[in-house]
Amino acid sequence: MIIIDGDSAGGNLAMAVALNLSTDSRITHPLKSQILIYPALQAFDFQLPSYQTFHDESGPFIISTHGLVRAFLWYGAGKTLFFNSFLTNNHTTSALKRSKYSNFVSEKNVPKKFFNENYIETKSDYGDEETCNEVSDWILNPLFAPLMATNESLSKLPPTFILLAEYDVLRDDGYILAKRLKNLNQKVQLSYWEGLQHGFLLFGLEASEKAMNEIIKYVHKNV
Question: Where is the Alpha/beta hydrolase fold-3 domain (predicted)?
Answer without folding.
Answer: 2-61, 138-201
